[in-house]
Write a structure and sequence with these properties.
The chain has 101 residues and is an alpha+beta fold. The chain is 35% helix and 36% strand. It has one domain: Alpha-Beta Plaits, CATH 3.30.70.
Amino acid sequence: MYTYIWEYEVQPEAEDRFREVYGAEGDWVALFRQAPGYVSTMLYHDLHHPHCYVTVDSWDSRDAHQAFRQQFAGDFAELDTACEELTLREALLGEFELVGE
């Protein structure tokens, strides 16, 4: 299992839209579901910082994620650009592999 975590500081007026796009039934998940190896996306809201969220995306393997990024590079870039207006800041917190696989 391969997982990566992104942190976002969301524009206050865009929080509802951000939750729609990044949530479990959102635009990102719709894109990810087109690729073999996609497992899940979870969206978390920080209890102490009102406009801070993290996404946790999981794939069968890092190779499956990299294959997705190659095959859907154009769609990914288009959606990423469309989402820029929703956030003030975003940062990759890390990439992880499940121990014991």
